[in-house]
Automatic annotation (TrEMBL):
Keyword annotations of the record: Membrane, Transmembrane, Transmembrane helix
Protein name per Swiss-Prot or TrEMBL: Tripartite tricarboxylate transporter permease TctA
Membrane-crossing residue ranges in chain numbering: 20-39, 46-69, 109-135, 147-163, 169-188, 200-223, 317-338, 358-381, 393-410, 417-447, 467-490
DUF112 domain segment(s): 20-442
Gene behind the chain: tctA
Domain of life: Bacteria
Length: 498
């Protein structure tokens, strides 16, 4: 009963009128940015990261939770109405969702996505309430070697296993690790890769990197490479946004299966929601093929319901892994981890001891965010669709201004503005050459964790490298990593043979 009592105290903190305003504002902003062409939930969090530093931590993270979950719904709205998903996690939803829209069922498709996101996120939040304290207690057994193994697992899984090209994924990872070590070494006091510049002695700000790569890089990419491309025609939703009993009965099992598929991926560094959404879609497609009247390819509601539930259940569980283990499984979660560090907080077992009010108020806000999103998305789906009519030049000019103002407001340094531009160009080159940006962000966030864990483990063992694989936890993590890599190689070989 202790988690329920702590959650009740969290609701007392989260249900103050100030925090209700922040979570509602976060849901509105997240949905709005996710709906807009070319943007997504990760960009929404990145843009708001420098803005929220004036807030106290609980209000800031409650707002981030609303942005995080709201952005996922916005991503799917674009995919359903324009066949252009905001992020990779919404690709699977576009297959049947856009066909439903073309068949005159756009409103029902948006309702299916909203309810599926609510179910997946709500179930995941319930599980996180009971699982996160247990995970935090388990992670209290971690020493330097275990944290190093966990970081290596995340590095390899996100850069070489879940990307199309392992070489490009690892290249992006090493770029992130290289940026992470710039500055004065905390142990030896020696400057590293600063080129003698005093402005780099404190290192490169993670806020600057995330805003530059995720936001400014996307703006430059659209301006240079996509301005002459013709966009997909917008399908405007009409009619009722509520589902009938027949549609509920059709989508219900798919929502349940999608939620079950997405839950385990929230605590495994496998690149976020992309994989579980495709798995959920694939399962529904195989089940549909056995029916007397297959509906896939014609706008099957189950082909939309399952990926939406899977994506949000993964996201909800990912927040639990972030709070209990300090492990980000996606670029957006990595930005959230950066936000914790900007406030001087380190997710993990000590966070539950040192800031329990923050943790449980944040967990309570997950439930509030789900309800708020359901309220603002079901009746106002047609309103969100109108955001897709915004002219792109005005939209991306506004984003550029927000990037510059946010970075300058948080640092007050013109050097950081130049850094923003330089790294933004790097982000553009990565997109143009089809390099993934998530490994770069995760490498920069977890790089210091891996370095500290490796250094402390080797110093405590007098340089004996066997200390890195001397505990059951490290052996298990490395064994799982080997199995994951072997499975990925086998799948790639099979695909090439086909």
């Amino acid at each position: 009963m202790e988690p329920l009592q702590l959650l009740a105290s969290g609701f007392l903190d989260a249900l103050t009128w100030q925090n209700l305003v922040w979570v509602t504002l976060g849901c509105l902003l997240g949905t709005a940015v996710g709906v807009m062409p070319g943007l997504g939930s990760s960009m929404a969090v990145a843009l708001l990261l420098p803005v929220t530093f004036s807030l106290e931590p609980t209000a800031a993270f409650i707002m981030f939770a609303g942005v995080y979950f709201g952005g996922l719904f916005g991503d799917s709205t674009m995919g359903i109405l324009m066949n252009t998903p905001g992020q990779a996690s919404a690709i699977a939803s576009t297959f049947e969702g856009h066909r439903m829209a073309k068949n005159g069922r756009a409103a029902q498709a948006l309702a299916t996505a909203a309810i599926g996101a609510f179910i997946g996120g709500f179930v995941a939040s319930v599980i996180v309430v009971f699982l996160a304290p247990a995970l935090a207690e388990f992670s209290s057994r971690f020493g330097p070697a275990e944290f190093f193994a966990l970081a290596v697992f995340a590095f390899v899984a996100t850069s070489s296993v879940v990307t199309d090209s392992p070489v490009k994924g690892l290249s992006a990872l090493f770029l992130g690790l290289g940026i992470a070590v710039v500055g004065i070494d905390g142990v030896s006091g020696a400057p590293r890769f600063t080129a003698g510049s005093p402005q780099l002695f404190d290192g490169v700000s993670l806020v600057t990197v995330t805003v530059a790569v995720l936001a400014l890089g996307e703006v430059i990419h659209v301006a240079c490479l996509e301005r002459h491309r013709s966009g997909s025609e917008l399908i405007r939703p009409k009619g009722r946004t509520l589902l009938g009993w027949k549609e509920f009965r059709e989508a219900g099992p798919a929502w349940a299966r999608g939620t079950a598929i997405g839950l385990p991926f929230g605590i495994v560094p496998a690149g976020g929601s992309e994989l579980p959404t495709f798995l959920a879609y694939g399962l529904e497609k195989r089940l549909d093929a056995r029916r007397k009247d297959p509906q896939f390819g014609k706008g099957a509601i189950r082909g939309l319901a399952a990926p939406e539930a899977a994506g949000n259940s993964t996201t909800g569980m990912a927040m639990g892994a972030l709070l209990a283990l300090g492990l980000p499984i996606s670029a957006t979660a990595a930005i959230m981890l950066a936000a914790f560090r900007q406030y001087g907080l380190q997710p993990g077992p000590l966070l539950f001891e040192r800031a329990p009010e923050l943790v449980w108020a944040l967990l309570a806000s997950f439930f509030i965010a789900m309800i708020v999103l359901l309220v603002i998305n079901l009746p106002f789906a047609t309103v969100w669709a109108k955001l897709l009519l915004l002219p792109r030049p005005y939209l991306y000019a506004g984003i550029t201004v927000m990037c510059a103002l946010g970075i300058y407001a948080s640092s007050g340094s013109t050097f950081d503005l130049l850094m923003l531009l330089g790294i933004g160009i790097v982000g553009f080159v990565m997109r143009a050459a089809d390099y993934p940006v998530a490994p770069l962000i995760i490498g920069m966030v977890l790089g210091p964790v891996a370095e500290t864990g490796l250094r402390d483990a080797m110093m405590s063992a007098n340089g004996d490298a066997t200390a890195l694989v001397s505990s059951p936890i490290t052996i298990t993590l490395y064994a799982l990593l080997v199995l994951v890599v072997i499975g990925s190689i086998v799948n790639r070989v099979r695909e090439k043979r086909r």
